[in-house]
């Protein structure tokens, strides 16, 4: 349905997107993960025909949309990272205004306005000014605008950033319904690993402008199938202890966390004795230790060396 071929974007001397190849099948929900600066928004902007690539191609149903962007625009919904609404207008006025831009008219326009306001759960508050809405409600209206013209594919660029848990939950459930019940194809980027795990059939991991891994959640987690993760909660950080762990023969990865350190080690390598010995040697007080099989976030840390929110 949608495919990129060696897509590249260069700003002066900086390569933002580097020879990226991705595809989406009809009805799929596909996640795009990457730390800040990975190139996600640039990639999405090129796919949405908002930005011209330096080289490469984007195909929609076999046709090159770089040469002719009007092929995809009528069937594409775009939810930008920033709120794109007129805050001095009501929700109803905003949605109707954008509906006219989509060239919807008359009874069909009015019908679609009411339908999308119902989908996003704000039909009963449609006459209120957008400036009086919470951040989560504004983001829901942003999504309503993208759904007006009944697109076949919707691109969502971090649609839940900075909103309350209730609105976030509502948006996630709504996206899931649109994909599963309506068959809408979704390309979804997020700073929240659990969102992509919940919504997406396949996942691309992007870093430094490149796609560095792709697959289902289970396929990606299998990258670390022969490893296990050890989480250490420390009273306070210790660079000497961390350096000693990094130098360990069987420690594959050490990552700082909010409360301590995360280690990736081979399964059954029996590292706990060594860890406690090094902690005592470097006077690092360990409050707790937990061992578990690697998660998708562990794989992300292993591949990029950075947290998703870094």
Automatic annotation (TrEMBL):
One of its GO terms (molecular function) is ATP binding. The keyword Electron transport does not apply. SUPFAM superfamilies: P-loop containing nucleoside triphosphate hydrolases. The keyword Secreted does not apply. It is a peripheral membrane protein. PANTHER family: LINEARMYCIN RESISTANCE ATP-BINDING PROTEIN LNRL. This is ABC transporter ATP-binding protein.
């Amino acid at each position: 349905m949608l495919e990129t071929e060696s897509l590249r974007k260069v700003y002066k001397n900086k390569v933002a997107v580097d020879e990226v190849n991705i595809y989406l099948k009809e009805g799929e929900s596909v996640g795009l993960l990457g730390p800040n600066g990975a190139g996600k928004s640039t990639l999405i902007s090129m796919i949405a025909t908002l930005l011209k690539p330096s080289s490469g191609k984007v195909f929609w149903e076999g046709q090159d949309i770089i040469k002719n962007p009007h092929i995809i625009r009528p069937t594409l919904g775009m939810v930008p990272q920033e709120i794109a609404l007129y805050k001095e207008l009501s929700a109803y006025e905003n949605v109707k205004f954008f509906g006219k831009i989509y060239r919807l008219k008359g009874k069909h326009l009015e019908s679609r306005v009411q339908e999308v306001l119902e989908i996003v759960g704000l039909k009963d508050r449609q006459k209120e000014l957008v400036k009086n809405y919470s951040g989560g409600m504004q983001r829901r209206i942003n999504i309503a605008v993208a759904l007006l013209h009944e697109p076949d594919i919707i691109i969502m660029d971090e649609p839940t950033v900075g909103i309350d848990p209730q609105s976030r939950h509502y948006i996630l459930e709504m996206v899931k319904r649109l994909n599963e019940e309506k068959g809408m194809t979704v390309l979804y980027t997020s700073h929240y690993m659990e969102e992509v795990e919940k919504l997406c059939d396949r996942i691309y991991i992007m870093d430094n402008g490149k796609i560095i891994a792709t697959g289902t959640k289970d396929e990606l987690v299998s990258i670390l199938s022969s490893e296990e993760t050890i989480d250490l909660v420390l009273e306070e950080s210790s660079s000497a202890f961390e350096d000693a762990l990094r130098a360990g023969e069987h420690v594959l990865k050490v990552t700082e966390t909010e409360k301590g350190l995360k280690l990736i080690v081979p399964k059954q390598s029996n590292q706990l004795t060594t860890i406690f010995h090094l902690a005592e040697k470097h006077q690092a007080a360990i409050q707790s230790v937990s061992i578990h099989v690697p998660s998708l976030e562990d794989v992300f840390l292993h591949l990029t060396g950075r947290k998703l929110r870094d």
